[in-house]
Fold these 2 entries.
Entry 1:
Amino acid sequence: MKMSTPIRVTGVILCAICLFTGWYMIAANYDYGMVAGTYEFRGAKESSVLLLKKDGSFFQKRSSNGKIDYAQGTWHRSGEGGIDFSEGFLEVGGVAPDSDGHTYGEVIKRLLDLIPSIVLGNDWDRGPRFHRVFLKSGKLE
């Protein structure tokens, strides 16, 4: 059975609308559930694994110059992409906590605004970046 041109055009338009709506729902979502997950940072002489839980808690492991440190605390979302880590967050990539003891960053999405990463500090282009881990598990032990 051959479909008429108006039916095919209508089907294509409806598919495009559904795809755009699905993409937008993910791309515009910066809530705790979307940001929660495991992230990794790799620098010249240091690495860090960061686990963000949906309940607002975090666990961090940092390896620097052969020394391993652990931290835990809380994280909060602020604004559209801002993220605030409580006291105890370990310095990464030269970004130390502010005078209030908190470390601030920004959630940046890449690959069609679908995959989140976290950039610490004020320089979103060159600041230390934690990349989301999907297929392998970052080890915190």
Entry 2:
Amino acid sequence: MIKRELYLKKIRDSYDSELIKVIMGIRRCGKSVLLLQIMEELKQKGIRADHIIYMNFEDYDFIDYTEAKEFNKYIKEKIKDKKKYYLFFDEIQNVKDFERVINSFRATMNVSIFITGSNSKLLSGELATVLTGRFISIKMMPFTYSEFLELKKSKNEEISENTLEEYIEWGGMPLIYNTNSDMERKMYLRDLYNAIILKDIVERNNIKDINLLNRIIQFMMENVGGILSSNSIAGYLKNEKINTSVDTVMNYIDYITTSSIFNKVNRYDIRGKSVMATLEKYYLTDLGLLTLKSSPIEKKTGGRLENIVYNELIARGYDVYIGKTEKGEIDFVIDKFGEREYIQVADYLSSDEVIKREFGAFDYVKDNYPKYVITMDKIDYSQNGIIHLNLEKFLLEQI
């Protein structure tokens, strides 16, 4: 079991805090394992096992406690004294009116609460209202490349020049690397995709037209890293003889991003220093899902590599935007805990024209924040104060 230190270090100082610890992420990215690792650390600190209560609401054993009253009753019966209890609730969105129960626990008991969810809107609505200023949230991603290497080393598997290619193709879902063949990997990813579609999108939003949903997701996969809008997708569907409205497409995109299968990235006007509400980009939370496409994207396309870089930045906890300049666009503007950085991503700097294009993207950025161009090249093309990084070096070293 790989220790998810990237996330543990963000939450460790809050183990005993009254703040509710909220861990959000796509289905099967490792949230349950993270909770188990936290529980193990608590036991190592001397916390008694009977003061650690864990409920996984995806487990049929807890089906009777997905109603608020039964959930509340179950926990109260487990609390036997006034010492601190540690409550772990996995996939809490499956409990009806869980917000009220969680807030009641926080307000009336000596507890430390940890919750996970696969719905990116877990902290919207009533939970955000009743817990304003009383929670910390962590967005969890599948394995980063460094975690993937740690896994391979733990299994005594060879690390070679093709290892990065393997990660780019199959992504970072932890359990996919327990499989023994490409066919098993595809079957695992197909099962994951179907579970997300059925449980996190169709059932939750009462969707009737599953074919339309799949066609929209297919289009988004084919255009990873491209600028998308409800209008452009509706236009594509119309050309495919599928009649639907822009409003329907907009709603479906919202359902898709809420399920955490895609992440929406807003544009940032660098000159005006403001976030823009139009012309967003969408990146897959795990690139392995691209293997399910009928016409796979080539492994080294700019969009695919952009996706890898974006996921790494999110895993590190940064806020990420698409940068708009006077004359063009910069792939990523990063808010790195109050400090700004800029990143361009390409596959290879294969010609003088490509070098001029990628480094020239920064010509209209008139500040002195760090600027990077990340590619698969192993030769260093750094120039004019702009740092060139090999993709693997970036993935393994903090910049």
